[in-house]
């Protein structure tokens, strides 16, 4: 499975159906809730039925729905796929499928561009990260992507046994020798971690090591890894891959929550100082004026709104465009539109989960250039 990247999401968000709308279909195919292929097909039928009712007989959309149905019924690799995202615009012969190792919320959206919000949530919430576990003799280096283990290496440096029984050494010499072996082992661990970084690449590193080793280990890490170090953990080295994975994902989720909290704190500080806007109306206005650096959105925030087909203006009030006076399209979810607009403008997008401060500030906001 090739994981979706932020760049690919931006490319998707940049596609516009000029002659016909784009149909986006997300399908939850998680084996935990949809055991058999026929359960998946039933889920598909459910979302397609309501989409057909809303398609108003548009032939391009009808073609999209047929293609989506054929793809799912035809079967796909379910061993690692928990979510499917399909984007179709028959009039432009446009077709993209993204298989995800995480579950999604099943929905069909017909709009002028691919609906990428759920993809953005997945990528934003599951950055690729490395986990380095070290004790006095052993090293385990794991890399996770979208919540799945993608690389695992281990190494072992035997500590010398019985040195203290060799009476030709003084006590100090024995201690120095043992310390040198540990230092060598830590260098080896740092090397293992750097090789995994070069092979896989990751944005964040989590470190698990006893307190008396952690400081020295950090000091011998390659600078690229030191600047990516975001947390320490107490995951035991002997844990199974699955135990490590679950514990690591919890640490990663905490790191993600604290990154979101930092962004929301910047938002709150910036509002009075003209460096940020909060609430739907001001945020959409800042997007239209292309002033946004970072868009912050509470996950699950949905609000109806309007979009102008002529000039691209988005806002909460219709029906005629305040800029060009053209009649606008009503949107079920203008927040989705805001995310797409931000991605297309190359802004950073931060989806915040359970952040009460952002909810109080209006569930959406932006750090702005001016
Ligand atoms: Zn307009």
Listed once per kind, the bound small molecules are: zinc ion
Straight-line distance between termini: 41 Å
What would CATH call the class of the largest domain? Alpha Beta
Low-confidence runs (pLDDT<50, min 5 residues)?
Answer: none
Q: What CATH architecture of the largest domain do you see?
A: 2-Layer Sandwich
* Biggest sheet architecture: 5 strands, mixed
- Domains (count): 3
What string, H for helix and E for strand, traces the elements in order? HEHHEEEHEEEHEHHEHEHEEEEHEHE
CATH superfamily of the largest domain: eRF1 domain 1
Instruction: Classify the secondary structure makeup into a structural class.
Output: alpha+beta
- What is the CATH topology descriptor of the largest domain? Translation, Eukaryotic Peptide Chain Release Factor Subunit 1, Chain A
Mean of pLDDT? 91
Lateral arrangement of strands in the main beta sheet: 7-6-5-8-9
Report the sheet-strand fraction. Answer: 15-25%
- Helical content stands at 40-55%
Describe it for me?
This protein has eleven helices and 16 strands. With 370 residues, it is α+β, with helices and mostly antiparallel strands. The protein has three domains: 6-124, Translation, Eukaryotic Peptide Chain Release Factor Subunit 1, Chain A, CATH 3.30.960.10; 129-238, eRF1 domain 2 (Nucleotidyltransferase, domain 5), CATH 3.30.420.60; 260-368, Ribosomal protein L30/S12 (60s Ribosomal Protein L30, Chain: A, 2-Layer Sandwich), CATH 3.30.1330. A hairpin with a 4-residue loop joins strand 2 (83-89) and strand 3. The longest helix has 32 residues, at 241-272. The two termini are 41 Å apart. The model has no long low-confidence stretch (mean pLDDT 91). Bound molecules: zinc ion.
């Amino acid at each position: 499975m090739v994981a979706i990247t932020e760049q690919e999401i931006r490319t998707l968000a940049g596609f516009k159906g000029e002659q016909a709308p784009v149909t986006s279909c997300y399908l939850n195919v998680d084996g935990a809730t949809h055991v058999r292929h026929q359960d998946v097909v039933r889920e598909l039928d459910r979302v397609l039925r309501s989409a057909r009712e809303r398609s108003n007989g548009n032939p391009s959309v009808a073609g999209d729905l047929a293609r989506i149905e054929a793809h799912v019924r035809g079967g796909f690799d379910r061993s690692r796929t928990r979510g499917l995202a399909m984007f179709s615009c028959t009039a432009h012969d446009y077709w993209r499928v993204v298989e995800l190792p995480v579950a999604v919320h099943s929905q069909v959206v017909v709009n002028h561009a691919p609906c990428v919000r759920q993809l953005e949530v997945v990528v934003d919430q599951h950055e690729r990260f490395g986990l380095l576990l070290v004790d006095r003799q052993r090293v385990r280096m794991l890399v996770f992507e979208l919540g799945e283990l993608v690389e695992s290496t281990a190494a072992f440096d035997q500590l010398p046994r019985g040195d203290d029984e060799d009476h030709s050494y003084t006590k100090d010499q024995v201690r120095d020798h043992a310390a040198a072996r540990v230092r060598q082992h830590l260098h080896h661990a740092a090397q293992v971690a750097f090789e995994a970084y070069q092979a896989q690449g990751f944005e964040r590193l989590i470190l698990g090591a006893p307190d008396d080793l952690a400081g020295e280990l950090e000091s011998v890490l390659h600078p690229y890894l030191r600047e990516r170090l975001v947390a320490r953990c107490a995951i035991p080295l002997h844990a199974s891959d699955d135990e490590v994975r679950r514990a690591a994902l919890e640490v990663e989720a905490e790191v993600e929550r604290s990154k979101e909290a930092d962004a929301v704190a910047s938002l709150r500080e910036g509002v009075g100082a003209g460096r940020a806007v909060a609430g739907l109306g001001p945020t959409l206005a800042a997007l239209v004026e292309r002033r946004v650096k970072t868009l912050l959105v509470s996950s699950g925030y949905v609000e109806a709104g309007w979009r102008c087909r002529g000039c691209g203006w988005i806002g909460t009030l219709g029906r005629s465009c305040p800029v060009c006076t053209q009649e606008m399209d009503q949107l079920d979810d203008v927040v989705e539109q805001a995310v797409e607009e931000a991605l297309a403008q190359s802004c950073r997008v931060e989806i915040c989960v359970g952040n009460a401060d952002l909810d109080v500030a209006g569930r959406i906001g932006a750090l702005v250039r001016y």
